[in-house]
């Protein structure tokens, strides 16, 4: 069984995922990093060829990760846009949604705007809000959902680990 982390960009999937993997003594995988390794291109370069091109590479990388067991996987913010991806995740593990308030997401995203190809060029709060509104509900079928707004990655990871043991 894998543990998958989902949420909007900036919600802390990678940071929390690394902490959770340490707590659970499991390997950590970041889906965006896996896509980059496989494609030998950055996420930004793949997005430059179109979001559809990126999503295809993302789905292939996710299928490879879902075939493994015992991982903690930080999904890309849009990985669950695909019904096939949702099904792969559902069949191979526990889905954990990280939520975060809009003001906190904005604060976090402004720290590293170059890492957010969907918000480039020029980080724009209105565009972020529109994208956030379109993504609402993607995490609705999560097995676990926690707010990362006022939690450090270590605190969020500890809460997830606790909930995993109860489930």
Structural topology:
Layout: E1 2-6, H1 13-24, E2 28-30, H2 31-39, H3 43-48, H4 51-66, E3 72-74, H5 83-92, E4 93-99, H6 102-111, H7 125-135, E5 144-147, H8 153-166
Parallel strand pairs: 1-3, 1-4, 2-3, 4-5
3D architecture notes:
- Helix 1 packs across helix 8 (153-166), helix 2 packs across helix 4 (51-66) and helix 4 (51-66) packs parallel to helix 5.
- The protein is globular, with a radius of gyration of 15 Å.
- With 167 residues, the protein is an alpha/beta fold.
- The chain has a single domain, classed as Rossmann fold (3-Layer(aba) Sandwich).
- A five-stranded parallel β-sheet has the order 2-3-1-4-5.
- The protein starts with a strand and ends with a helix.
- Helix content is 53%, strand content 13%.
Briefly note the CATH topology name. Rossmann fold
Mean pLDDT: 87
The total of helices stands at: 8
Number of domains: 1
The quaternary structure here is single chain
Q: What would CATH call the homologous superfamily?
A: P-loop containing nucleotide triphosphate hydrolases
């Amino acid at each position: 069984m894998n543990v998958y982390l989902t949420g909007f960009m900036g919600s802390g999937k990678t940071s929390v995922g690394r902490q959770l993997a340490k707590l659970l003594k499991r390997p950590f995988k970041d889906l965006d990093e896996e896509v980059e390794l496989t494609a030998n291109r950055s996420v930004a370069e793949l997005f430059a060829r179109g979001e559809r091109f990126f999503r295809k590479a993302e789905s292939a990388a996710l299928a490879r990760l879902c075939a493994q067991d015992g991982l903690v996987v930080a999904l890309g913010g849009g990985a669950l846009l695909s019904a096939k991806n949702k099904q792969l995740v559902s069949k191979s593990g526990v889905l954990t949604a990280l939520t975060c308030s809009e003001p906190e997401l904005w604060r976090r995203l402004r720290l590293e705007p170059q890492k957010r190809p969907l918000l480039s060029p020029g980080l724009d709060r209105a565009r972020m809000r529109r994208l956030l509104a379109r993504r609402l509900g993607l995490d609705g079928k999560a097995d676990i959902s926690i707010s990362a707004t006022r939690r450090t990655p270590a605190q969020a990871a500890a809460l997830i680990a606790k909930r995993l043991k109860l489930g």
